[in-house]
From TrEMBL:
<dbReference type="GO" id="GO:0005737">
    <property type="term" value="C:cytoplasm"/>
</dbReference>
<feature type="domain" description="Myosin motor">
    <location>
        <begin position="24"/>
        <end position="92"/>
    </location>
</feature>
<keyword id="KW-0067">ATP-binding</keyword>
<dbReference type="InterPro" id="IPR001609">
    <property type="entry name" value="Myosin_head_motor_dom-like"/>
</dbReference>
<keyword id="KW-0547">Nucleotide-binding</keyword>
<dbReference type="GO" id="GO:0030048">
    <property type="term" value="P:actin filament-based movement"/>
</dbReference>
<dbReference type="GO" id="GO:0007015">
    <property type="term" value="P:actin filament organization"/>
</dbReference>
<dbReference type="GO" id="GO:0051015">
    <property type="term" value="F:actin filament binding"/>
</dbReference>
<dbReference type="GO" id="GO:0000146">
    <property type="term" value="F:microfilament motor activity"/>
</dbReference>
<dbReference type="GO" id="GO:0005902">
    <property type="term" value="C:microvillus"/>
</dbReference>
<comment type="similarity">
    <text>Belongs to the TRAFAC class myosin-kinesin ATPase superfamily. Myosin family.</text>
</comment>
<dbReference type="GO" id="GO:0005524">
    <property type="term" value="F:ATP binding"/>
</dbReference>
<keyword id="KW-0009">Actin-binding</keyword>
<keyword id="KW-0505">Motor protein</keyword>
<dbReference type="GO" id="GO:0005886">
    <property type="term" value="C:plasma membrane"/>
</dbReference>
<protein>
    <recommendedName>
        <fullName>Myosin motor domain-containing protein</fullName>
    </recommendedName>
</protein>
<dbReference type="GO" id="GO:0006897">
    <property type="term" value="P:endocytosis"/>
</dbReference>
Amino acid sequence: MWLQRPVSVQGVMEHALQHRERVGVQDFVLLEDFRSEAAFIDNLKKRFHENIIYTYIGNVLISVNPYKNLPIYTEEKTKLYFQKAFFEAPPH
């Protein structure tokens, strides 16, 4: 018997929007205001503050120097990307 809390579509959507508000989008193509330099910089800042240093613009990878060591090159992380297509995993 599985004891799971019912999940509403609205709850999932709200969580996704809150997550996006906190960490930004992983591809600048998805920005609502994609022509705005301010929106571009704001998205980079959000991701930087969450230690997410890689972001796509289509098939171009943007990298921001974190000025610290991050645990993003571990064997476990490498397995997440093994034999995956370009957009099947977060920017790396």
